[in-house]
Amino acid sequence: MCELLGFCSARPENIKDQLREFYSHSEQHRHGWGIMYPGLCEKGADKANDSEKLKKILQSLEPQSVLLGHIRFATVGSVKTVNCHPFTARDNTGREWTLIHNGTIYSGSQLMEFLSRQSGDTDSERLFLHLLKKLDLAQQNGALDERGRFELIDALVREMSPRNKLNLMIYDGEIMYIHKNMSDTMKYKKTPFGYLFSTAALDNGEWKSVPTAQLLAFRDGKKIFTGEKHNGVFIPTLQYIKASDAMNI
Question: From first to last of its 249 residues, what are the pLDDT tens digits of the chain?
């Protein structure tokens, strides 16, 4: 169980207050942190509230138009930096992809081939490698356009959502993709020039629920694509409920 934050805007905006509130949740999600914005991707396996590196990043942070943030509560994979999010890599066209995930892959035999190839030992990294493989196969004869990339990710979430918790934020250098498949687990707030997404509300503004089981895509602070609703809604298992309860110990 983790928490996610995503920001996409037409102009740079100051979201330091919301970021500080987000990372303060590390008292419950204490197994690592990550942050990505253009020109920087950093993460650590220490608790966000205790990280001197993260404090320096937030102190010097300029207004941004794109940003991803993550805090981790380990359910699959050991507590080490390589298992922290974001995961980032380039596809065979040179496009850089970044992914953060909140959830657990309970049913995913198609990910097993990546056990020997991944750097860490999380299901989230295997999911990321699965995405990269799909991209590389689809782009053997040339790069996908923005619609093609959206349709590929839409197919991925439809494939992987059944029986898995698949709350995702993905950034491809131009477009931010947002998906949740469990109710009441992701919200959004309209900002002056874009959108802020988070697992939980981060201030007293007007936060609304992100649609469940439907991929959304944003560029420059505007929604550009909306996928069809799918049937892969995650219903919490006893295993999931026990893990969630453990965070509150």
Answer: 689 999 999 999 999 999 999 999 988 876 899 999 999 999 999 999 999 999 999 999 999 999 999 998 767 767 899 999 999 999 999 999 999 999 889 888 999 999 999 998 999 999 999 999 999 999 999 999 999 999 999 999 999 999 999 999 999 999 999 999 999 999 999 999 999 999 999 999 999 999 999 999 999 999 999 999 999 999 986 555 555 545 443
pTM (whole model) above 0.90:
yes
Domain assignment of residue 153, given as a range: 2-246
Q: CB-based contacts of 19: which residues, under 8 Å, 6+ apart?
A: 5, 35, 58, 61, 67, 69
Q: Based on the structure, what is the number of domains in the chain?
A: 1
Task: List the CATH number of the domain containing 198.
Answer: 3.60.20.10
